[in-house]
Design a protein that fits this description.
There is one protein chain. The protein is mostly helical. It is rod-shaped and about 105 Å long. The two termini are 34 Å apart. The mean pLDDT is 81.
Length: 168
Amino acid sequence: MNKLQEIKARISKPTDQYWMDKEHIDFLIDRTELSVKQQEIIEENKRQQEVTVHQFRQAQEEIQRLNGELKQAHEKSGNLLGEWRRAETQTAKISDQLMDMKVMLRMEQGKVQWQKAKNGQLKEALTFMRMRQITQKNLKTAHQLSTLTEDRSQEKHWRVMRNDPFTS
């Protein structure tokens, strides 16, 4: 952008050394500035997309970790169920232990159900957040491009109006 400022400063001095009209040169400079701004917006969008991808990967890792915990809880509840069935056939001497294991089994099954519900909610929330971020980025980019184009159009119109000898 600094190089562009140098060129603008050099061209602003009146001289007949250029093979193009100043109006055309100004137009090319405006287009170059617009391109630079658009490139900056694209780079910012790429950066934001990288952040979103990083967040998405973190969420995926969290889901995988929760799925691992869910699998362990399933295995643990399966083990507890097997122990519970074996304990049922034992003597009355261990009936107190049997009752404790029933309570533990119910707690583990509750945890499994809770973790299933939580995983479903996390997956839905992640999908919603991702879609919302993409939509917001697209809307923001469209608005920025529209504003830049509109500003350039108005600026060109006023510049033409100021140079017109019939409007003064």
